Known about the structure:
Blueprint: H1 10-22, E1 28-32, H2 39-50, H3 64-69, H4 76-86, H5 92-97, E2 102-105, E3 108-111, H6 129-138, E4 148-152, H7 160-171, E5 177-183, H8 191-194, E6 198-201, H9 207-217, H10 222-231, H11 236-241, H12 244-263, H13 267-278, H14 285-303, H15 317-324, H16 329-346, H17 352-364
Parallel strand pairs: 1-5, 1-6, 3-4, 4-5
Antiparallel strand pairs: 2-3
Amino acid sequence: xxxxxxxxxxxxxxxxxxxxxxxxxxxxxxxxxxxxxxxxxxxxxxxxxxxxxxxxxxxxxxxxxxxxxxxxxxxxxxxxxxxxxxxxxxxxxxxxxxxxxxxxxxxxxxxxxxxxxxxxxxxxxxxxxxxxxxxxxxxxxxxxxxxxxxxxxxxxxxxxxxxxxxxxxxxxxxxxxxxxxxxxxxxxxxxxxxxxxxxxxxxxxxxxxxxxxxxxxxxxxxxxxxxxxxxxxxxxxxxxxxxxxxxxxxxxxxxxxxxxxxxxxxxxxxxxxxxxxxxxxxxxxxxxxxxxxxxxxxxxxxxxxxxxxxxxxxxxxxxxxxxxxxxxxxxxxxxxxxxxxxxxxxxxxxxxxxxxxxxxxxxxxx
Length: 366
């Protein structure tokens, strides 16, 4: 895949291509932006172009180096294989001793938050100390081609105490190494790490651009394409992976949760809704919170009296508008604040079911 084929954020792709052309590649890059906006895709393309045997500033897609990196376009199967090889009974010591590292090319490593096990993953996967130390050691090996590239996805998940060890390689990097850190939340990284990276912030795409992306890559009907593009938040990867039927069901459940909480009467039904939402195994709880935020965002738009608002949930327009007439702006803001508190507690492994119950009770009594 060529840089010219990358969808959106063309200026970032052009900047990377210029670095390779001038052979002035920084030792550390930080890609920040929402999930599915293309951070990993562009990072992989950069790694491929940095080691292409035919082109200096792009990937030909045909040389041995490009072909070896092609499987990393969709690393899910590679991650599953790595977890299976380590074993389902991996404990903390095994995880550090046998870190999860994806490698199809000797000069390019991919590190992702380690879920520890395949069938029973931990509640919050993270980049672990064993992975960071492996990078620190391997960075000093000479590349077999042109450049050693280490892709660290989910960089915000590394513990700050572990990040201190990782900081050493950022302070004294070998000339032939580039580290690409990808994150949905740059502020969650240590300031000392951010300051040592050349930072790129990926902006969401226009709905029309996401719709064209889907048209080129899927067989969705025009109406489904349009809805998926609207629900994606400007992120092509989200739109591509979106299960419209499941998404509509979950968003309706989130809306029903808010309706029931606003009514403040049916506590038994309200807690039944929280149990159903938190036990959903197809979606991460963080993604469910995103759905709540999207509904509350639309409620806030209606409460401000916008004439013809652009909604994040256009297929639920009637129901959201009806709810906006029953709740005030203060109630909506309070709901957002409660979800913010719950989201913060999740980083400390707080019980999500009890947390959502507490949000429900607070809103019902408001």
